[in-house]
Amino acid sequence: MDNAVRMETMERLLREALPVEALELVDESHLHVGHVGHGGAGHFSLFIVSEAFAGKGQVQRHQWIYKILAQLMGREIHALAIVAKTSKEAGYGS
Q1: How far apart are CA 41 and CA 1, in angstroms?
Q2: How many domains in the chain?
Q3: In angstroms, what CA-CA distances link 5 with 32, 55, 89?
Q4: CATH at 25
Q5: Is the pLDDT of residue 87 over 80?
Q6: What is the rounded CA–CA span in Å between residue 91 and residue 25?
Q7: Rounded to the nearest 5°, which phi and psi values hold at 42?
Q8: Residue 91 falls within a domain, yes or no?
């Protein structure tokens, strides 16, 4: 699976599981080319805004995202940096 397909799959899974207000997924694999064991593929950063995160701490939010992406973690996603916010935290709400 190439990174474009990985990203499409990740976005689809997240949007199916959460009411997403904003989602930005960035391929950072080029920063890791030459690292042992994965050839630089599968490094991403995720910025996601969802009201589903209200009342949940950062660890819970990250665990939820990892669970949604479980079928890809470790095989297709080598590393994932996450920023998960509610609308208000992201400055979208009042």
Answers
A1: 10
A2: 1
A3: 19, 32, 30
A4: 3.30.300.90
A5: yes
A6: 19
A7: 85, 25
A8: no
**How much is the pLDDT for 89?**
96
Domain assignment present for residue 17? The answer is yes
Q: What is the distance, to the nearest Å, from the Cα of residue 20 to the centroid of all Cα atoms in its chain?
A: 12
Residue 37, domain extent: 3-85
Q: What is the pLDDT of residues 13-68, one digit of tens each?
A: 999 999 999 999 999 886 655 555 555 458 899 999 999 999 999 999 999 999 99
At which residue do the structure tokens 């709400």 appear?
Answer: 93
- Domain assignment of residue 94, yes or no: no
Residue 10, in any domain of the structure: yes
Residues with Cβ within 8 Å of 20's Cβ and at least 6 positions away in sequence, in order, are: 14, 48, 49, 50
Using CA atoms, how far apart are residues 50 and 15, in angstroms rounded to an integer?
A: 10
**Tokens 């950072």 -> residue:** 28
